[in-house]
Here is the input.
Amino acid sequence: MSSFYFYCWIIHITGLNFADSVDLCMGEESRLFCRQNEIIVMTSSEYGRMEVGRCIPKENDFMGCTNDVLTLLDRKCSGRQECNIKVPNPDLEEENTECLEVLRLYLHATYTCLKGTVTVMQLDSFHSLVSSFSL
Here is the structure.
């Protein structure tokens, strides 16, 4: 008989430190980070061709396509003290349903750093506690 495990994250927030955003063009990488005893909480993440700027220097006919990738980056970064993001990224490409694949896309993400702790509990299929640890 196989066992299944569930994970429950308990986040205890004691204060908001700061908010930041990042634009990542094709071929770029960034490290999101917070200070000690703070955790990242992703607040928005879009992947596409949202507007003219550093990553898309001039407007053409293919502007305005966007993919909401908050769930993806939330799983990757939220609850951690630091997180590396790279574009292009196979996971982002999988989420791309709105933009033509041949277009040069970029990522715009915003996050906040919250002071607090994260406790992760591992539960078995009967919802009994198997292990617990704090980050």
The chain is about 10% helix and 55% strand. The beta strands are 5-24, 28-33, 38-48, 66-68, 82-87, 106-124, 129-134. The longest strand covers residues 5-24. The mean pLDDT is 79.
